[in-house]
Amino acid sequence: MNKYMKIKANSKVFGVILFIGFIITTICMQLSHGDIFAEIFFYDTLDTGMDFFHSIEYTRGRAPYEVWNTLYPPLANCIFYFLFHMIPKSVSEQWADTFESGIGARGTSIDLRVSQTPMFLFICYIIISVMLIWIIVNNYYENKKTSYIMCFGIIFNYGMLYAYERGNIVIYSFICSMMFVFFQNSKNKYMREIALMSLAFAAGLKIYPAFLGFLLLYNKEYKRAIRTVIYGIIMFIVPFFAFQEKLSGLPIFLNTLFKFQNITELSYNGFSFDKIFNTIIIPFQLIWKKELDVELIITVGQKLNIVSALVLLGCGFILKKNWQKIMACCLAMVVFSNQEIYMIIFMLLPLCVLIHDEDKVINRENTSIVIALSLLVCLLPLGNMSSETNISLKYIRFQIIILILICYTIFNFFKQIMVKNNSGRKLGQIQK
User: Fold this and answer.
1) How many domains does the chain have?
2) How far apart are CA 344 and CA 347, in angstroms?
């Protein structure tokens, strides 16, 4: 591959793919006068940034779970409660008292987005995240050109831009996950401990990064794993006491989370394994021309989410390379979760580590994975394929690439088992 490849670094491959995608999307937005924007990002054009603004509203009265049934863990709500105290009372006293009335307030005089202070806080919310990404990435990569490319890629990828549009706390959960993945094996013992706390903080904001804790188990760092669990419990439980519900809010939160995760309608748009499964059976539906047992399909899909996540996490115990183990964890996280497009940002973690460890190693395997992950997170103007089924090309793209990466991970799992078995046989023959 070296003979034909002019770009001699995997980071450049990543940067070029994302840059081309960004340019294509910009041109399409120009040609459509911005109409394609709603198909690329959140469908409700009146809801921009409301994951941020609604979350501030939900902390008013310090009853985010009993009154609002918020999906955010208490640590995330503590951050928004802190921001709430920066909002003038003249503004907050006019806010809606229910979720439905809050939705109806969009575009009116009591919409937080028309007030100076909330909008300024939102701008700072975004700017601080960009600064943190820049600092972390520049401290991780020794080569400055590589760090510049990776900063561009992390900030201007599809998942991150989608998260910015939503104003979702996943931005900071991802940043903390980066801290853990990048510095968990640092030579500095204090940095290693900060990395563990960062993982606990990431999980405290969004739950799903807890999957990354398996990296400690893969490396047999059981003491560090126990400390991380302790940090995680503290960061999950203690923040409940900042609100009026205290620990009574815990079962309400878990029930809301379970209902959100428990899908009741057949859907093709997403990248959890049940969505991939639903898309796979479409050709069979067309061949059989029979009505599907929707309830059965949903049940099977939900079980497949769990099974696929467990299989991927199990693969990590055998996989050899660090970035492969990280990818197994992130794939498990993605196929298990029932989340928006912003969850795809976690697939940047194995990509970043691969480029850090093997940037100049241009071979078929490495570069193919870089290309696959780059195409996964790349911003592309893909909209709905069918208005009737609402099947979206952007999700089909995600599903195909994720399925390829799952197959690659499982293949490497069995490959490593065969290598170990062959090594064991050779050792046995030598001893005889």
Assistant:
1) 1
2) 6
